[in-house]
Amino acid sequence: MLMRPRIDLSNFRFRTTEKLNLYFSNSIVLWFGTSIVVGLWWIKGRDFTEMGISMPTFHNKYWIVLCSLVFILYVIDAWFNFNTTEKIRETRSKWRHSTPFLPTNVNELIAFGVLAFSAAICEEILYRGYFITYLVSWWGTGGFAMIFAVFIPASLFAVAHVYQGWQSVSKILLGAVLFGLIFVFTQSLLLPVALHFFVDIMGGLLSVFLMHGQEKEVSNEEEE
Question: N or C: which end of the chain has fewer CB within 10 A?
């Protein structure tokens, strides 16, 4: 039961109105939750630079390796998903079943961009800036302590996407760990936010490219 495949959402019909409502409502929830965390941080009198709300420091070159790794892994994953006609067909089917709420036209993509922007900022503040900083303050910066401080928030973030299936969870976990390490080495959320937004908006762009017109085809097949 623990290895149950991704949740099938294909029976849900996400038309443009439903998608726009979903994007904007989720954005509001993200900003509301983040505002509470940031507000409590401010009330406690803590420095926002501790949370990574500052310009990055580039005292070492690890951030270059980590950012490069994010892009390389993204390109490899994209190649495996889109390198043949059969793979494209499989990816369309997977997205139709697990993420039917992704944009399929330009209007939806614009609204999705608002959600991607909100998620990039809010989720990085919560999962990286807040959680990692708090865990480090409890456990210190020793080797294993730092590993756990990065890994635990990354795991929570990945499990929140379990509806996409365990394969996607493992990919998201790896990406979240890399984002956490970039935050640790640069002491800033700027690069994690930028990379997070890049990954999300590219997902939206690929969805429009792959799924545009597919909804009508599926509806026609069901009518027949």
Answer: N
Q: Could you tell me if 211 and 104 are in contact, meaning their C-beta atoms sit under 8 angstroms apart?
A: yes
Number of structural domains (the chain) is 1
Q: Which DSSP category does 6 fall into?
A: P
The boundaries of the domain holding residue 28 are 16-85+100-214
Residue 9 belongs to a domain: no
- Least reliable range by pLDDT among 29-33, 99-103, 123-127: 99-103
For residue 221, is it within any domain? Answer: no
pLDDT in tens, 190-206: 999 999 999 999 999 99
Q: Confirm whether 6 is domain-assigned.
A: no
Contact 168, 161 (CB under 8 A): yes
* pTM over the 0.70 mark: yes
Q: Quick one: CA torsion of 51, 52, 58, 62, rounded to 10 degrees? A: 70
* CA distances for 159 relative to 93, 120, 131, angstroms: 22, 17, 15
The Cα 13–Cα 215 span in angstroms is 9
Q: How far is CA 209 from the centre of its chain?
A: 19
Whether 8 is covered by a domain: the verdict is no
Residue with tokens 């029976």: 11
Among 102, 131, 106, which residue's Cα sits nearest to residue 115?
102
